Amino acid sequence: MASSSLSSMAASLLVCAMLLQTCLATRRLTALVQEQPITMEYHKGALLSGRIAVNLVWYGDFSPAQRVVLTDFVSSLSSASSSPPQPEPSVATWFKTARKYYATSKARFPALALGSQVLDQSYSLGKRLREKDIVSLAARGGPRRAINVVLTADDVAVDGFCSSRCGSHGASPRSRAGRFAYVWVGNPATQCAGQCAWPYHQPQYGPQTAPLAPPNGDVGVDGMVVSLASMIVGTVTNPFGNGFFQGPAEAPLEAATACAGVYGKGAYPGYAGSLLVDPATGASYNANGAHGRKYLVPALVDPDTSACSTFG
Predict the structure, then answer these.
(1) Which of 8, 16, 134, 280 lies in disulfide reach of 206, CB 3.0 to 4.6 Å?
(2) Spatial distance between the Cα atoms of 82 and 75, rounded to a whole number of angstroms
(3) What mean pLDDT is predicted for residues 274-302?
C-alpha cells in the first residue's frame, strides 16, 4: 500500500502508520491489520544461494558501541557463528522461518556471514543522499555474492527517509563485475524516532502508548535492528524484485513487511504484542542474539500457515 493512500483509510485502523521499515526499493510506512490469509506468491525469479557475505558500509558518525550492536545482530543470523550458542528464542531460529520459502524453489537457502566493513566518517557524499548515492555506497562493499548494507548516521538525510520509509532493499544493475543485493537503513534517533524506532520511542501518531526500554540502550540503533532484520529477510526472499511477495511489484508486501508492527502475540495497532522483559534492565525484546545480546525482530509470514508468525 503506497503511503499516499493513507489519508483515505479509516483512522481507527491505520493510526499507527508510523511504525515501520520498508521493502524492495522502498517499504511503505504503513501498519496493516490483515485477518485474512497472507499468501506470498513466488514469481519464479532468482534467489540468493550458497555462502553470502553481509558487508557493512558505515556512513557518518557511528560510535564503536553502536557498530557492535549491529555487527552482532548480523552475526546472530547464523547459529554457527555464535559462541556460546544463542539461548532460545534466538535470532538464528527466527531467521530460519525464511528458509521455508526456499522449499518451493530450486535454490539452496543461503548461509549468511558477516563480511567486510567500510567506514566513511567524512561524509564523502554529503549529508543529503539520493537513491543513486545509496547504490554507489553499497558498491563499496564488493561486487559479488554479497548483501551490501549501507547504514546511515542520525544526521544523514536520505530521500524518502521518515516520510515513506525507514529502510529499503534492492539490487545493483547487471554488469560484468557481477550483481549484488543491497540494503539501506537509517538511524532515526534525531529525525523520526516516533516513526522508525517504535516501540522504543513514543509514537508520532496514533495511540500514545508508553515507549518500551530498548535492549541495547540505544533507541535509534535498536530501531535500526528492526529495520535491518526486515530488509535482510526481504532481500533473501525477494532479492531482485521477482521472488516472493504479495501485491504489485512496485510496492510489494514481503515476508516481514506484510506483518508490519507485529512483534509478539496479541499485537494490534499501537501495541507491539507480548514481549520478553529482561529482569535486570527492564528492556523488552523477543530474540536472543550473539554475545549475549537481546534484540527485537519482526514477525514473519509463515508460508506453512499463511499468517504472521510471532516470536519470543
Answers:
(1) 16
(2) 7
(3) 97
**Do the Cβ atoms of 53 and 116 come closer than 8 Å?**
yes
What b/e string do you get for 216-235 counting C-beta neighbours within 10 Å, with b at 16 or more? bebbbbbbbbbbbbbbbbbb
Span 9-36, pLDDT tens digits: 232 322 233 333 433 444 344 444 445 7
**Cβ atoms of residues 144 and 180 within 8 Å:** yes
First CA to last CA distance, the chain: 28
SS3 29: coil
Residue with cell 540494503: 183
Sequence letter at residue 80 = A
For residue 108, which of 121, 120, 99 has the smallest C-alpha distance?
99
Burial class of residue 138 (count of CB atoms within 10 Å of its CB; 0-12, 13-18, 19+): buried
d(CA 180, CA 202): 36
Classify residue 10: in a domain, yes or no: no
* Tally of CB atoms within 10 A around 209: 14
Give me 93's grid cell. Answer: 531460529
Residue 109: inside a domain: yes
Query: Is residue 235 situated within a structural domain?
Result: yes
Domain range spanning residue 22? 16-309
Split into its structural domains, the chain has a count of: 1
Which of 35-44, 70-79, 149-158, 179-188 is predicted with the least confidence, judged by mean pLDDT? 35-44
Peptide bond into 89 cis (omega under 30): yes
What is the reported pLDDT for 134?
Answer: 97
84-114: pLDDT as tens digits: 788 999 999 999 999 999 998 889 999 999 9
Distance, CA of 109 to CA of 9 (rounded, Å): 38
The grid cell for 199 is 516501540
Cβ atoms of residues 160 and 206 within 8 Å: no
Q: How far is CA 239 from the centre of its chain?
A: 14
pTM attached to this predicted model: 0.89
Q: Residue 152 falls within a domain, yes or no?
A: yes
